[in-house]
Request: fold
Amino acid sequence: MRIGELARLTETAPRLLRYYEKQGLIFPRREANGYRDYDDYLVDRVLQIRGLLDAGLPTRIIKQILPCLDAPRTIHFADATPEMLDTLESETERMTRRIECLTRNRDAIQEYLSVVKELA
Amino acid sequence: MRIGELARLTETAPRLLRYYEKQGLIFPRREANGYRDYDDYLVDRVLQIRGLLDAGLPTRIIKQILPCLDAPRTIHFADATPEMLDTLESETERMTRRIECLTRNRDAIQEYLSVVKELA
DNA sequence: TCTATCGTTGACATCGATGTCAAGGTCCAG
DNA sequence: CTGGACCTTGACATCGATGTCAACGATAGA
Reply:
């Protein structure tokens, strides 16, 4: 599919799809006329990228994470340098801390909301 | 305490403590000489702010969230306008989506790491 | 008192994600 | 063949969080 369709399917501006490509997150093929040609699986890919971005991860890290999440699961040994494994390990720790912080605060807000509603 | 000590305790540059103040997240008193004077409880406050920022929330939202999380719990009815309750509700939904996305991807990375380690 | 260290404000720079616009090529429907 | 919709690249702008620097005042220890 072309960039416009992917943009509609993922609610992502074409500008950003090109940006994600420049950051090395997606690699569309090209039609003979130069137009980008996106495979269907890139819909999920882009949604995942948006989710991770929204969750606070920078494209630099997402780029390292994505190859590990490909389905069907292919273990990319070539990519699995010790430094990258370290990066991934410390990144999962950061993600866990984020999850805890988000959960704690979300629960506190929800409790606040429920108290306010009860008193209404 | 003064800004330098708070900076050490929270590992946050003084520049940012002033920035958070300008964004309306903290309100230190002033000494007679103009120096900012931070209460002890602001250590936790700043750590919470950093956690929320790191979790992807903008200061604009954090500013609305913080008053709901004060301990001892004081329900600020004056602040609890319907619009703000709406904001908080939709923000908790966003936080839940973030948590799910982070959890899903973290688990996938951890599984990848465990597989790679097993094969090592 | 001198000096190092810390504090103040304000301006300007940077960085990543995103918006916007210009100039031009492609494609298709009328 | 023409007009509108879509694509290309590239430049420049914006926005929030953060870094850095300048010019200056306050503090504290030798």
In short: Helices of chain A lie at 3-10, 14-22, 41-54, 59-65, 82-119.
